[in-house]
Description:
The chain is an alpha/beta fold. It has seven helices and eleven strands. Strands 1, 2, 3, 4, 5, 6, 7, 10 and 11 form a nine-stranded mixed sheet that branches. It has a two-stranded antiparallel sheet with strand order 8-9. Helix 1 runs parallel beside helix 6. It starts with a helix and ends in a 12-residue tail after the last helix. The mean pLDDT is 96.
Amino acid sequence: MNTAELLDRLARLDPAALADANKQIRVIASNIRPIRSGLRLLGKAYTVRCHEDFFAVIAALEDADSGDVLVIDTQGSQAAIVGELFSSEAARQGLAGIVIDGPCRDVSTIKELSIPVYASSITPVSGTTQSLGEQQLPIVCGGVMVQPGDIIFGDDDGIVVASEAELRDLLPLAEEIKRVEEVVLEKLKQGTSLLSLLNFAEHRAQLEAGNTTSSLKFLI
Length: 220
């Protein structure tokens, strides 16, 4: 399976399915939230490290490829590293999104764009352009390690990070989880009780008996 095929199959899922398939998957800290809700984020990481200075982000906009996600470690910056101009340029270039472990600004304009932008905070104060910063190196974003080329997959629930190899292993289980959930949702719409679709009584009895190896499962 090549990268394009992998991304195509991922696009039919959601981050929650991957997190259910592997509860140890890398998840970016929940304080890094989308500026505009309702958008999906999916692409390869183009990593940036900077501090109180956004020159490295400009360089990344020049060097990143269409479909990449800029993932920025601001190292605790208090100044905004991305605003409406960079976000608009990223959208024009066909980038898949921007994830900032740090502040952004101009959110009223960013909310009108179709490119997903995530940030941990908002401020009107911008950084400087006096430091080269670093690009395409391992960084820490939202408490997890992100390698250049890792797949970044996010929605309103949050963002998961994984290598292509990890995702190829996870995909079959994640796809099955998604399939089962869709069947369950359809049955609920038809009036079927959720508990009737689960081994709830059996699992409860096992837990009451002290069997913590039991698991709650759908019966479909």
